[in-house]
Specification:
Length: 348
């Protein structure tokens, strides 16, 4: 557990020792699990720990498993229990990644239930950062079909209720809550959505009451405020999940995650994004870039980069700002242990 999670001096010292060991073992290393474009070369293969090892002292590799679902989505296994973060699996086309002007905000929402079942499993908890379609589209079906508890904003609550999710399954949060789920804790952090070239973002707005009708198109889903989550597992890591590439520096100050799932920005509208983020979080032992892929391509193939995202530049900047941090560039097929070393290839 992190210092903030348990609040005791002894546990804080244990967390600091574990993080120091993690960072020392990971010094200057990066683990690319994605074929990079010719000449990219920003990440180097780690030689510090063998695949399948327990990793750094203090973190049991088998205390959790993590698999990237693309965008900012993750499937986390803790023993026999499952946690999903922003699971967007259907990944239907909207024209967003096509020629300029081909994006269609009237694209209808759709859910490939068989595909979602295959990738999502049977989660107990779903954490939703915000309500844009590439984060919440598949959540109503997963919640209805599994009975999973959904943690999200008031906007998430109203969207899910309008799409048939039982209100008893939805936990409304604002940021600042620390939720004990028995075997893991989730700290909810107020966050911010990614900025665009106009220093704004797509589809702003919140819902304080049920929408007049259930969302039908991607433009019917407002951002609805953005959250981040720090998930902590006994004998395992604390993992900070971002759903977008901006943050509230004061809200995250004092958090000390072992692993940072960091959204890659599409531009420079957010001032000194990487150094401020890594500084506020204390230079996490492992940094995992997310939300850099074309999320309209299926999970069955290798990730394709969003051309607007400078993944290599992001990795290089992490190395400059926090040279002790290990960078892991994920793919869709790899299942990681709690030490963020590859364990197995996903069957789905």
């Amino acid at each position: 557990m992190s210092e903030l999670m348990n609040g005791t001096e002894d546990s804080g010292r244990r967390s600091l020792v574990r993080r120091t060991l993690l960072r020392g073992a990971a010094l200057g290393a990066a683990v690319p699990l994605l074929p990079t474009a010719a000449g990219a070369g920003a990440a180097e293969r780690s030689s510090g720990a063998a695949e399948g090892s327990s990793g750094a002292a203090g973190v049991r590799a088998d205390s959790a498993t993590l698999r990237w679902l693309g965008t900012s989505g993750w499937r986390v296994g803790i023993g026999g229990r499952g946690v999903l973060v922003d699971p967007y699996i259907t990944r239907f086309p909207t024209g967003l990644f096509g020629p300029k002007g081909s994006f269609d905000p009237a694209t209808e929402l759709t859910c490939d239930r068989e595909l979602v079942d295959r990738h999502a499993g049977r989660p107990e908890i779903i954490l939703v950062s915000h309500t844009h379609w590439d984060h919440v589209n598949d959540v109503p079906y997963i919640a209805r079909s599994t009975g999973a508890r959904v943690v999200g904003t008031e906007t998430t609550y109203h969207v899910l209720r309008s799409l048939g999710v039982d209100k008893a399954q939805i936990s409304v949060v604002k940021g600042g809550e620390v939720l004990d789920f028995g075997g893991c804790t989730v700290e909810v952090v107020s966050s911010r959505h990614s900025r665009n070239a106009n220093w704004s973002y797509f589809a702003p707005g919140t819902l304080n009451t049920p929408p007049p009708q259930a969302p039908r198109t991607i433009s019917d889903l407002p951002e609805g405020d953005t959250l981040a989550f720090q998930l902590s597992v006994p004998d395992g890591p604390s993992v900070f999940f971002m759903g977008a590439s901006d943050f509230d520096e004061r809200a995250v100050a004092g958090l000390r995650p072992d692993v940072l799932m960091a959204a890659v920005p599409a531009g420079r509208a957010t001032h000194r994004y990487v150094p401020r983020l890594l500084g506020a979080l204390g230079g996490p032992a492992t940094v995992v870039p997310v939300h850099w892929d074309n999320f309209e391509r299926p999970l069955s193939g290798p990730p394709q980069r969003d051309p607007a995202m400078d993944l290599d530049g992001f990795v290089a900047e992490v190395h400059r700002c926090s040279p002790a941090s290990r960078v892991v560039v994920p793919d869709y097929a790899t299942v990681f242990g709690a030490d963020m070393l590859p364990r197995t290839a996903a069957n789905a």
